[in-house]
## 1
Amino acid sequence: MSNLKEIAQRHGWDRWKDAAFIGAALLMTAIALGSVTSQAAGKAPTHEYQLTVIESSVEIAP
């Protein structure tokens, strides 16, 4: 029975590693959610196009 206690002790939770993993997962989730919000995306630029039509009687013949 003493072997089982040693195995349980070796494979027990490592609280610092678990806390670091959970903290990193939460940080990455927050960064991912923050990058898709409307404030992070910004506003789409408005393009103003201008069209000028020139009438001409000149024709190009082939």
## 2
Amino acid sequence: MMKLHKTLFTFFCLSLTILNPLYAQQNSPAFMYTDALNTYFSDSSGHITFTDNWLAFAPEGKFKGQVTVVDANSTVIGSYNYFDEYTVRNGVFARARAQNSADITLAKPGIYSIVYLVDGQPVTRLPFKLEQASAGNDPFNPQRTYRFDGYWRTFAYITMDRYMDDEAFPEVRFWVGGVDLPEGKKRDAWMLVLFRDGKLVAHSKRSAGVIMEGHFKEQRSTLYMPHDAGKEYKTKNFLEKDWLVDGIYELRVVRMSDKISLRSYDFKVVGGKIKHHPRSTLGYQPQVDYIVPRTLSGSEIIEIFWIEDRKIQ
């Protein structure tokens, strides 16, 4: 994964010199990164499908938006327009819908990027890597298959939108997929473990979720005070007040079959507040790499805190 990250970073720098000039003004339009990461990708076919996307600081009037897939040479592989009318408007946020059959199939392994544009200017991008998982040489299963990789393995986020007994308890959302399975296995389980200043302070239920074959799927989990197996009913939730104790935090995603740590996200709590990821700070440059600290939850747009596995960088 370290090699992938360095390759993507090199592609970032290359893209800056080739793509059109970026918006310079503050609060430029930006597509929600949660939407970008949850775009439909098919590992079995290399297929990508674009539908609806939320954006922040949505321009007034007719919307002139596009979503484009480019390769490492910034050659456009496919490009689709959004309808010029938003499907929903909510303050500075709006939801745009891609026109027609907005899909593309990639068949050549390499580095690519989804680039979202407004008025012809790139405002958000998601680089990723396409690998060939199977060449289709098996006569009994001649289908060629692929595997997408990228920021699904480095990013996660925390929400504060869940309530119980009038007290907030955060939820962690992250992505796991077939690349996280042991060789030869088709499914496994995961749990979350949280450390503050090196001390275990919380964890999810054991085997809280499932890792499946195929592309990365978004997972979600709440945490509990440390407890023995099977004693979840006797323990307390790890509430917002517990999360907001100052310190240096590490959140691990542990694969249950062999106790391997798949992810190790780092973040800090300072002055009773989770520090936002640098890329989610307004004015971050380059603007095209700004990630919106909001997502849609039900019918509400809520604040989120992006965290990152920085140990692979």
## 3
Amino acid sequence: MSVIKRRYYVHGWKPNSIYYLTAKELYSRILEDSKSDYDWIASATELVNVCNTPNFPEEYAQGIKICILNCFANLELERNIGSHGEPTDDEAVYFCYNSLIDSNKNVIDAKSRYLKAIINSIIVYFRFGSHIHSFNTYKEISQKWAIEKFDEYFPKEAIDFEKFRKDLYADFDNVVTTAEEEGSFKKEEEQYLENSRRFMSSLMAKLTPEDFFFK
């Protein structure tokens, strides 16, 4: 007698779109969808809800959560690019991270990528605020800080990501502000301004009055 495989309802993006899939079929679909970071069969929130259904096979739940983490690691640095999403998706992704406690390589790699993506996003988007530096010293300070934060948080069993993001930003702001007050960026920035001045002087020296005439 053949065993009837259990199927699960998955609510898709389109109105009234409902899929009725086995755990393996859903996992296979997510693997295919994960070739792109957009237009998945359903939201992260819905997928996590399905994975949390009683008796949903842990093997496939783990695989789906890994795909979600990898996807949102990529999206972390592409916040301005539109894609399907629900207000609760961040919470769902945080759940994926904290519930993946296996020590196999795929889990470790996915959690590592996601944590690094958040840390790097603080550095990237911080540069568009009141502190704007793009020289070697800033890069060295940023990389040193990022490594320290990763080493501090990755060993934790669970992370409060809402607090984590706020704490990261405040800490990085303090690190950059301290470096500014200590004059860490001053030499490179003065050299940059001097090089720019020399370039403009050299350029102007090659021009003749006729170069400014309207023709």
